[in-house]
Amino acid sequence: MRTGFFSSPIHSSTTSNSPSRHTTFSETLMEETINDAGAVIKRWDLDVSSSSSSYNRVANLFRDYRDEAHQFLDAVNKLQHGMHFVIKESSRSELLIQAQNLMQIAMKRLQKEMYTILSGNRYFLDSETVSNSRSSRASTRSSVSDEDDEINEIIDAEVSVSSTRVSEIDKVSERVMADLKAIADCMIGAGYGAECVKIYKLNRKSVVDETLYYLGVEKLTLSQVQKMDWSLLEQKTKNWLSAVKITVSTLFQGEKILCDHVFSASDSIRETCFSEIAKESALTLFAFPEMVAKYKKLSLEKMFSVLDLYNSISELWDEIELIFSFNSLTVVKSQAVTSLVKLGEAARFMLSEFESAIQKDSSKAVACGGVHPLTRYVMNYLVFLGDYSGAFSEIIVDWPLSIQSPLPESYFLSPTPDDYDSPSSAVSVRLAWLVLVLLCKLDGKAQHYKDVSLSYLFLANNLNYVVSKVKKSNLKLLLGSDWLLNHDAKVKQYISNYERMGWSKVLTSFLENSTAEMSPPEARDWFVTFNSDFEEAYRTQSSWVIPDPKLRDGVKISLAKKVISGYRTFYEKYREILRSGGVKSVVRFAPDDLQNYLSDLFHGTGSSEHGTTSYSLSHSSSSVSTSSSPSHGR
Predict the structure, then answer these.
(1) β-bridge mates for residue 625, sequence order
(2) 403 falls in which pLDDT band (50, 70, 90)?
(3) Is Disulfide bond tagged as a keyword (predicted)?
(4) Does the pTM exceed 0.85?
(5) Candidate CATH numbers 1.10.1760, 1.10.3680, 1.10.260, 1.10.357; the one for domain 358-498
(6) Backbone angles phi, psi at 623, to 5 degrees
(7) Is 84 helix (H, G, I), strand (E, B) or coil?
(8) Phi/psi at 619 (nearest 5 deg)?
(9) Which CATH fold would you assign to the domain 500-600?
């Protein structure tokens, strides 16, 4: 029996017509797996022309048959597993060829599906939608300990409530992103990552390029920029400023989120893919500010366009570093840094030209003692600069102030910001120095007045304008309260000097005769002299002006107290005596008359008092024609 039991299979193997090699159980099972996967895959073969598959060739698997789409992906994964088994464990080449053919059919189908999803869902893959969708679904559980069950329950409840509020757009966006990721994972796992990336890259790069075009961001050369009129370049600068925040925070950010999600299976693929999609457009975006900084016709009024460009990049820098963090995108960050450097150099050049132009201004002082156009222009310019204190501080932090002045350092190093959170003291010192340069220039212009009292009124008007501009702007925080107190005191000192010099004869007559008793002839002579002195002062100053209403009223009140109160004493004391002596005619003014005359003063009109005056501040190649303020397109 033992012999028969063992001899039967041996005999059978030598006499039978069966193959010389047995198929193992694992091989049989894997063959069935490949055949089952093939049945699913062939239903969606794009090359089959039979009537049963004609509809499937044009149908969208992931849109119209989502359940079958998941079955299809599962079949591809099983096919991939079967191919690995055949390669490692079996020598049946015909089975491997069959599996490879099926894989090619599947990959061709998935390429079509990815293209269809990307092309047909651009609205739902919009960068803003993607950014908002991903941020709204950020998990909060990771920051909470697993032991805090009560907190976890609260979070679960909040997440549940939040989920019910997700808009339909976000839901579709999430579904589309999930489909793209599933396709990418499947193709990368099957070794078809390059084909997947090619389709994705071409589609999304066209989205980025089109978006930049519609935002008005153009690819320009330095030669093209140099040939542009400033009006055209200024408009392109405005377009860039409107576009840069959207481009960085929404477009590039959204594309990176989408790319990271779809190709999360491979760090190298997601880096390569995002780099090829965004690099060219990002370089175009960040190269434009550098070309503006190199514009050969830069002049003073272009300072604020340069600062706007600098400020935009500076404010977005943290996002730029985060979005373009891959090594392959270092060139983008380098371009952004280069633009910042060149913009800073251009701003420093224009600031030097601005200071030099003030020092070399040769315009004459205004005849009426009002605010000089130079004062208006410079202060309006500095007010705008004060609004850029953040960018300004970065630009001048490594640019020490070179002072060539006979005045002590304490004069222009006096500003002390009211709080330590204000911009750096470098900005305060630089602005205080520019104000000092202006005031020194005004001192020189004041010396050209023949009437000393008018020179003091001129200085008071101009310094008061400077102080007023500082108080009403960001300069107040930058220059500090001590600076304001010191210069307010100087305005009062100038006014005091004006009153003393301009009304010296009138005021002196009160002091010299305030206590002594006068005879009628002496009183008569006093009134005659007073009439002459007052009329002369009034006639001389009738064309003088104090533009600021508050300062003007203050001067009138001060003069009224000194002139009218002194005159009233003599008027009430000697009016009856002179009338009884028959010399009434010498008392020409009642106190109220003097009040009326003083009220008429300081309203003189001069061309410099109106904002429509054209003024030119020029120095070498930099020139500005302005209506008392720098042109600024903000």
Answers:
(1) 616
(2) low
(3) no
(4) no
(5) 1.10.357
(6) -140, 150
(7) helix
(8) -155, 120
(9) Monooxygenase (1.20.1280)
